[in-house]
Amino acid sequence: MGKPSGFLEFERQAALKRGIEERRKDYREVEQKYSEKQTSEQATRCMDCGVPFCHSGCPLGNNIPDFNDAIYEGNWKYAFEILDSTNNFPEFTGRICPAPCESACVLGINKNPVAIEYIEKSIIEKAFENGWVTAHPPKKRNDKKVAVIGSGPAGLAAASQLNKAGYRVTVFERADQVGGLLRYGIPDFKLEKQVIDRRLKLMEEEGVIFRTGVNVGTDISAAQLQEDYDAVLLAIGSTLPRTLEVEGKGLNGVHFAMDYLTQQNKRVALEEGYDGLDLARNHAGEAYEKEDIRATGKKVFVIGGGDTGSDCVGTANRQGAERITQIAYGLLPPTERDANTPWPMYEHKLRTSTSHEEGCERLWSVNTKEFIGDENGNLKALRLVEVSWKFENGKRLLIENPASERLVEADIALLAIGFSSPQVGGLVEDLDLKLDARGNIVTEDYRTSRKGVFAAGDCKRGQSLVVWAISEGREAARAMDVFLSGSSVLEAKEVGMTSAAFSS
């Protein structure tokens, strides 16, 4: 290990943030540039445990103690090589991953865990600065062609791996730009899009072909796809949003969170000089029923307590909302690790994002009963009720308190309550793929029920994390390599102790 006393000498310090008043005025990343000195100090906190549970906490199996030790020794290039060997896109995970590796850090048992996410981002940014991240086209290509449908993190990871193995890879994306929810669902203040673009440029230099504005299943039939390509990977995500089955959900002013975020991301992209963006279409490439969703001067309610809801809060703050309230029907989480999620599980606790810091009221144990509109069909209020929970016959039951019902004024309600499944019409239906009870694509070693067709990411496992999507894309690529060539030159992920809790 680098420095045995490091965890005693230095306290945890993650990325520094820009001031609240400054960052609310723009869509630049909230986090400031990494500090080489700070990163080195944080790396020395790693204890190089005999059993590094951070490995199992990370779905990619990143060799975390090794790159921490390399940084301590001042060998940043070697640290990059270690990180690059298991993670295709550390510049994404270093910004937007909830870091289950940190929840599994042994130091976290009785101290603050190692700032692994910050260290990871520091490594990759140092690598880009020094020109260590370069295109590596395969030295030899075979004649087999592979189609990847969807350009989110799972599709991009699979495309990168398959290209390394020498296949001729084409990525199809129905939206107007590549990146999936990385581009359309993650606000620029968390992930500036030039970070995506510099990686895509490298992938193109390596030989990956990207085709945007192509809705496979409509513009290209399933039969044509299988005729033209030796294997197909579906990385189409989980894009059907969950809704609230309550009266008034069709009112003007009630929107899905992803439609709201996609519109603003496109506005920011247009300001950055992108051509051909269509504000009238959402992240799924479908026309909006209601256009121009803005929170400026309005009373905004964000329904859903997760990261997407937090992103809506940050966006509404930047648009100049009059008031922002985020509500969740779950209990207020504890401020420290919950006893129900002991180490090394991904802990259940209250998380306050940079968006919350910028201004937001948060309500817990509150459910939405009704959206109430005016005579013109515009949202004017929400009917809320306080709830509690109890377990009965092994099931968790929601209990409303009728006496607590109240009306609150609202101009916009954003539904940030997750996604239910991939879209099953079109391509999935044409391929006649087997689906599970939740509507996700059933696979065995990433193979679907249709020969030569594979699936990875959220369309297979359900709504999940970016880091899981990258892992799935890598593993699917290896399975496809075995299918096409009988064996694989791609690295196999080490089998760890990953808990089901880490896959949430």
Rounded radius of gyration (Å): 23 Å
CATH class category label of the largest domain: Alpha Beta
**Helix amount, in percent?**
25-40%
* Ends apart, CA distance between termini: 32 Å
Number of strands: 16
> In terms of per-residue confidence, which ranges show pLDDT below 50 for 5 or more consecutive residues?
495-504
Number of domains: 3
CATH topology of the largest domain: FAD/NAD(P)-binding domain
3D architecture notes:
It is a single chain. This protein has 504 residues and is an alpha/beta fold. It folds into 3 domains: 6-129, Orthogonal Bundle (Fumarate Reductase Iron-sulfur Protein, Chain B, domain 2), CATH 1.10.1060; 145-239 and 420-503, FAD/NAD(P)-binding domain (3-Layer(bba) Sandwich), CATH 3.50.50; 243-417, FAD/NAD(P)-binding domain. 32% of the residues lie in helices and 16% in strands. It has 19 helices and 16 strands. Helix 3 (36-44) crosses helix 9, helix 5 runs antiparallel to helix 6 (76-84) and helix 7 runs antiparallel to helix 9 (116-129). The longest helix is centred in the last third of the chain and has 20 residues, at 466-485. It starts with 5 loop residues before the first helix and ends in a 19-residue tail after the last helix.
